[in-house]
Structure to design on (242 residues):
């Protein structure tokens, strides 16, 4: 056979940051080695377990939204659908609870039941279609058949997708997508506002969103809240050391 007609073997992509995927023990006893394809003995059997890794995008550190935030609940759910949003929220919580070096292995049937979905019929199940919907909107991607990479921070809803929202949401999202707010607060004032929000018992992301509702640009609100949160975490330790 001429060389140009010989079939080529696709090259597998490397794991994020050069890490090697750990062996994944599947329900049923079959393990996959690093970079291997997940299966339980035969190609016809459905996937039962996924290794899930966080996708930490530096571009979203200031402008991104936690899947559990009010922004995602208000706006992304109208585009992505409730099942996909709840899956991303569940995974965000699981990522937070992982110990250092621990790998998240997701039992698909059990996770589907937690979301009120079913996982029968392999990749045509409603649960696998939910995962695929996250992939369609660039919120998740498959590293290989056994490894799913999921965003920890969700980007603002792209403007081209605003048409999928009802009019009242399209009007409201305009306050979140601007880069310059209409308020004239100094850096110190924005940090004080963020500190007050945290003292009132609001969470990190909810505090930032409330500042946006007061007129701050999302980037300014995120920066002020991140500063206030860091001060809240560091100050007790600094005080004890005095």
């Amino acid at each position: 056979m001429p060389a140009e007609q010989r079939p080529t073997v696709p090259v597998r992509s490397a794991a994020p940051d050069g890490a090697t995927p750990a062996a994944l023990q599947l329900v049923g006893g079959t393990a996959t080695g690093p970079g291997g394809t997940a299966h339980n003995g035969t190609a016809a059997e459905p996937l039962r377990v996924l290794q899930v890794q966080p996708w930490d995008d530096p571009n979203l550190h200031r402008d991104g939204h936690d899947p559990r935030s009010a922004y995602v609940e208000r706006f992304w759910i109208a585009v992505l659908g409730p099942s996909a949003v709840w899956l991303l929220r569940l995974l965000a919580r699981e990522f937070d609870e992982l110990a250092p070096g621990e790998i998240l292995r997701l039992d698909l049937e059990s996770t589907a039941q937690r979301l009120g979905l079913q996982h029968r019929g392999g990749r045509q199940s409603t649960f696998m279609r939910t995962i695929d919907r996250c992939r369609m909107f660039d919120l998740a991607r498959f590293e290989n058949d056994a490894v799913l990479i999921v965003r920890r921070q969700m980007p603002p809803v792209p403007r081209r997708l605003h048409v999928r929202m009802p009019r009242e949401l399209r009007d409201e999202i305009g306050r979140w997508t601007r880069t310059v707010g209409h308020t004239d607060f100094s850096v110190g004032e924005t940090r004080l506002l963020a500190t007050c929000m945290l003292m009132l018992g609001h969470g990190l992301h909810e505090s930032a969103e409330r500042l946006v509702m007061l007129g701050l640009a999302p980037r300014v609100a995120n920066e002020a809240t991140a500063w206030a949160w860091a001060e809240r975490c560091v100050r007790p330790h600094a005080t004890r050391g005095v």
Remarks:
- DSSP finds eight helices and six strands in the chain.
- Confidence is low (pLDDT under 50) at residues 3-43, 237-242.
- Residues 218-241 form the longest helix (24 residues).
- The CA atoms of residues 150 and 166 lie 27 Å apart.
